[in-house]
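This week, work through this protein record:
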Amino acid sequence: MHVHVARPAAKQLTYQIYARALHPELFESCASDVLVNDQFSLTLRICESGHVVELLRGRDIVSEIKIDGQQELPSRGRCLSVGLSKSHDLSVEPHPGMMIQASTQIEIVEPEVFERLSDEFRADFGRASLSHLFGSRNRLRPDAISLLFADCSPHSVVIHAFHTYPDDLAIIRTQSLYEF
């Protein structure tokens, strides 16, 4: 398996919601985990460009993707797609009785702030539901970091995602609330 040490440009990323599963081979996962309870199954994956979250509840499947906008994905089942070059507050009902509210934010910061935030994210590795540290192309810049936090209850799931992009000095945050 070939692992790249660089992420795509932060401003070319997209956030997408699908009312279906997407084939796992579309995404090269660097880390993954599955959380299961009586109500649903939640698959978390960290990819080079961001993350893939798949929620299976009964017969309903939803996929949330933060990925390189240059990567071609199927259009069938896509409920939502936005570029991450600016912040968004979003809402979609992919299946009857399931509502997703999401917020995306991109922040470009000064190098010193980026390094401080990278240190804070690194300190959160143990608390995260899933985390991954990517190697850097530039030895003078911090490594790229991805953190996913999942908070699950019988009637909702909240996903907080943090991804750093050292080449752009960018941090992308997403928060997704799935309500049943």
Observations:
- The chain has a mean pLDDT of 93.
- The radius of gyration is 16 Å.
